[in-house]
From TrEMBL:
InterPro entries (alphabetical): CoaB-like_sf (IPR035929), CoaBC (IPR005252), DNA/pantothenate-metab_flavo_C (IPR007085), Flavin_trans-like (IPR036551), Flavoprotein (IPR003382)
Listed EC numbers: 4.1.1.36, 6.3.2.5
Function: Catalyzes two steps in the biosynthesis of coenzyme A. In the first step cysteine is conjugated to 4'-phosphopantothenate to form 4-phosphopantothenoylcysteine, in the latter compound is decarboxylated to form 4'-phosphopantotheine.
Protein name from the UniProt record: Coenzyme A biosynthesis bifunctional protein CoaBC
């Protein structure tokens, strides 16, 4: 996919430098011509030999090194060759240097000399990331056209659980693909995606939910973003990292999800309801229920509001494209067609429960005319591409 593309991977002195090895490896497997440029600090964490072996090219950390004789004026030669510059990880120090035009080493000099698109994957302590100076520098680089991916939340090297981790290598490579070769057939389209399984509270401690992992919705959001869409992701609880540069709107219940969908509906061209929304919710008790002995408990449930049906009744419905999901344990196609008609959908994805929480999905697509097309089991990322291909055809 990246054959013929030259990508410079800048590696700076963050502990996440070891993850850059996987980034380089993945880019090479996609047939990119990869050149690694390291700061002196990065070379203290990962040996240049590792990157030279993975990339198949010389590693640049000193512009005056003898082994670079094949690259006259290395930073200019590489800058002209590059289709994209990726800096992963990127420290607060290097963000600041680039933002203020400082070019005092091999990496910053190469960045300054290149007109190629630049992607930055920050990694640093949470308080460094929140520092107003860093925030200002990041904003300036965004204005200058740099793309950012991450940082994400998780356990940091200092022991804190907070924002600051470098985005995962797979997500970074997906961003590279999006910026270099991905088709942009959804550019200027505003797509709202819901994901995850809602939680309906029983009391302040307990809740009822379902087995949804949110993986299908997150895959749809990521692929839509890769294809140029402006994506709003409304997410019920999941264990997933935010895809690409999307910041999910976090909700818990079906009611909260409905409110979030309606709040963003007017600014949306397409609504994809991939979330597993509860059909019923219990009456919430103010205090934790006390259970004495082993006795049966009866929960009184009442229906939640139907989000898709509510959206379909909006006055500008004809200007929107609505996509729903139907997970059925019996009569899959029959029940999916019924849901398609009742909720006035343009497209529905029908699947069984066997891959509800998995990484793969076997599904069928049914369009507004009732035409059914079945697809074999595939990864949810592949399925997202297939669904969006069909979506584009309906627009």
């Amino acid at each position: 996919m990246l054959k013929g593309k030259t990508i410079i991977v800048g590696v700076t002195g963050g502990i996440a430098a070891y993850k850059a090895c996987e980034v380089v490896s993945r880019l090479k497997k996609l047939n990119a011509d990869v050149w690694v440029v390291m700061t002196r600090e990065a070379a203290q964490l990962v040996g240049p030999l590792t990157f030279r072996t993975l990339s198949g090219n010389s590693v640049i950390s000193d512009l005056f090194a003898n082994e670079l004789s094949s690259l006259p004026v290395p930073h200019i030669t590489l800058a002209k060759k590059a289709d994209l510059i990726l800096i992963a990880p990127c420290t607060a120090n290097v963000i600041g240097k680039i933002a203020h035009g400082i070019a005092d080493d091999a990496l910053t000099t190469t960045v300054m000399a290149s007109t190629a698109k630049k992607i930055i994957a920050p990694a640093m302590n949470c308080e460094m990331w929140r520092n107003p100076i860093v925030t200002k520098n990041v904003d300036e680089l965004r204005v200058a056209g740099c793309e950012f991916i991450g940082p994400v939340e998780g356990r940091l090297a200092c022991g804190d659980d907070d924002v600051g981790r470098m985005a995962e290598p797979g997500e970074i490579v997906a961003q590279v693909l999006s910026s270099t070769v991905a088709q942009q057939d959804l550019k200027d389209k505003r797509i709202l995606v819901t994901a995850g399984g809602t939680r309906e509270a029983i009391d302040p401690v307990r809740y009822i939910t379902n087995h949804s992992s949110g993986k299908m919705g997150y895959a749809l959001a990521q692929v839509a973003r890769e294809r140029g869409a402006d994506v709003t992701l409304i997410s019920a609880p999941t264990n997933l990292s935010a895809p690409l540069d999307i910041k999910p709107i976090r909700v818990q219940s079906a009611e909260e999800m409905l409110e979030a969908v309606l709040a963003h509906y007017d600014q949306t061209d397409v609504v994809i309801m991939a979330a597993a929304v509860a059909d019923y919710r219990p009456k919430i008790k103010d205090q934790k229920s006390k259970i004495k002995g082993k006795v049966d408990i009866n929960l009184k449930l009442k229906p939640t509001k139907d989000i898709l049906k509510t959206v379909a009744k909006q006055k500008d419905r004809v200007e929107k494209v609505l996509v729903g999901f139907a997970l059925e344990t019996e009569d899959l196609i029959k029940n999916a067609k019924k849901k398609l008609k009742e909720k006035d959908l343009d497209l529905i994805v029908a699947n069984g429960p066997e891959t509800f929480d998995g990484d793969k999905i076997k599904f069928s697509l049914i369009d507004k005319k009732g035409k059914v097309k079945k697809f074999p089991q595939q990864t949810k990322n592949q399925a997202a591409q297939t669904i969006l291909d069909r979506l584009v055809a309906t627009m």
